[in-house]
Amino acid sequence: MSPISLNTLRTFSFIPSVMHRFQSMILAARLKKKLLDQCRQIAVHPMKVLEAITTKKCREEFSLESLETIGDSFLKYVASEYLFKNYPHYHQGLLSSRREKMIANYFLSRLGRNQNISGFIRTEEHDPKQWTIPGEQSDYRVTKICIAELPDAYSTGRRCIKSKVVADSVEALIGTFLITGGEVSALLFLKWLGMEIEHCKNIFIERPVLRRPELFVNLKELQLLFNYNFHDSSLLVEALTHGSYQVSDIPGCYQRLEFLGDAVLDYLITMHLHSIHPVISPGLLTDLRSASVNNDCYAHAAAKVGLNKHILHASSELHRQMSFHLKNVANSFSGPSHGWDAGIALPKVLADVIESIAGAIYLDSGSDTEQVWRSIRPLLEPLVTPDTMQINPVRELDELCSRESYTKTFSKSSNCGLASISVEVNANGCLHKVESTGMNKKSCQKLAAKQVLQSLKACNHD
């Protein structure tokens, strides 16, 4: 009998890893077959299914996070459209509450468990020492334990998956079907899950006719700004009407349109970022989305093109707040700005009208998302990129304080409708304190954190 070479023996050590990958692909293929038994018209690649069931803990070159982000934005979009259409008398608060329940992790987790998706999810890093032979009948996994004065020993244990992990995988599978087969495929998958959502390209809701809308807004100027001519101009009037503007001719304020437009813009921006940056890391995609889809970004876009002049309202307080915040806005837009990077906190109503106008164009155009993007994108330019992105300063400050063991305190107060946020950081005995005042607490918190960061960086540089 010929001796076995050392190289041959070393080759045998790769068998567990090769078999692990082979088992993973079989797992994905089984789930794909389970899905396609119900959605026969769709062609989904097994690798995309594998990606959608692989968590970050597996330490693979891929994980479900990017697909989860895409699926989350699509689910929010179709759920919002469904609620807007089927509950025409619900105000924004009720619509938002119903949407939260439809897209909540506990609900998605329940749907995933009902379809046995949880059994396919991969949550553990591959360890060759814990690999078991295919066909082994035990329902248990072996786990390494340490016992004094004994060699390495192993015990069996059951696998436990958190509800959020199941929900994340469900969203990732929605994203898989969306980017593979489009919106129809994603909707078929939602139906298979048990979520009956109709996606209509023409939403018809009976509305009072507004005579002579040009008496309320400058139609010509606004339609030129959005590069879109409204078929029903009363939608544009509604999109610019604040709740304080009580006029019998105008049927309602912008809040319902804001609810719809918020979801449409979130979806469009997420898909845009994925299409132009298809290979970026999941974390960077999430950061780009957060930097692009927020009230600060939308409010600055509205102020930059002067939408504040077109808002219909009857609130002296709102007028005072907008005047206070916008008096120096021209200087803050002398260069590229992405929300909190501008250095000024603007009233939330400005962000609201960007979303409500997006909702109005979506309805008026027959649910044409491409038209919404053509109209709103120029207002948001320049769009954030990996090179221009600024991390949320609150998060950056938290990470810096955690890394350097600095002591940080936030305090807040309000006076005459204005929020005041104070941030204090003790950096090894050196005190850095900044206070920011404005209408929006979150924006003030971001601006205060940004100024503290600048102070800390200047001190470290010196």
Q: Layout of SSEs?
A:
Elements lengths: L5 H7 L2 H22 L9 H7 L12 H22 L5 H12 L1 H10 L26 E5 L7 E5 L5 H31 L25 H8 L6 H7 L15 H22 L5 H11 L2 H10 L11 H11 L2 H4 L15 H17 L4 H12 L12 H12 L2 E9 L2 E10 L2 E9 L2 H21 L1
Antiparallel strand pairs: 1-2, 3-4, 4-5
Helix pairs in contact: 2-3, 3-7, 4-5, 4-7, 4-10, 4-11, 6-7, 9-15, 10-11, 10-15, 12-15, 15-16, 17-18
List keywords for this structure.
Double Stranded RNA Binding Domain; two-stranded antiparallel sheet; mainly alpha; RNase_III_dom; 462 residues; RNA-binding; Ribonuclease iii, N-terminal Endonuclease Domain, Chain A; three-stranded antiparallel β-sheet; 3 domains; single chain
What features would you describe in this structure?
This protein has 462 residues and is mainly alpha-helical. It folds into 3 domains: 16-127 and 145-193, Ribonuclease iii, N-terminal Endonuclease Domain, Chain A; 215-379, Ribonuclease iii, N-terminal Endonuclease Domain, Chain A (Orthogonal Bundle), CATH 1.10.1520; 393-460, Double Stranded RNA Binding Domain. It contains 18 helices and 5 strands. It has helices spanning 6-12, 15-36, 46-52, 65-86, 92-103, 105-114, 163-193, 219-226, 233-239, 255-276, 282-292, 295-304, 316-326, 329-332, 348-364, 369-380, 393-404, 441-461; strands at residues 141-145, 153-157, 407-415, 418-427, 430-438. A 3-stranded antiparallel beta sheet has the order 3-4-5, with helices on one face. The protein has a two-stranded antiparallel sheet with strand order 1-2. A hairpin with a 2-residue loop joins β4 and β5. The protein is globular. The N and C termini lie far apart (74 Å). The model is unreliable at 144-156 (pLDDT under 50). Pfam families: Ribonuclease_3 (PF00636). Residues 51-182, 219-366 form the RNase III domain. GO terms for molecular function: metal ion binding; ribonuclease III activity; RNA binding. One of its GO terms (cellular component) is cytoplasm.
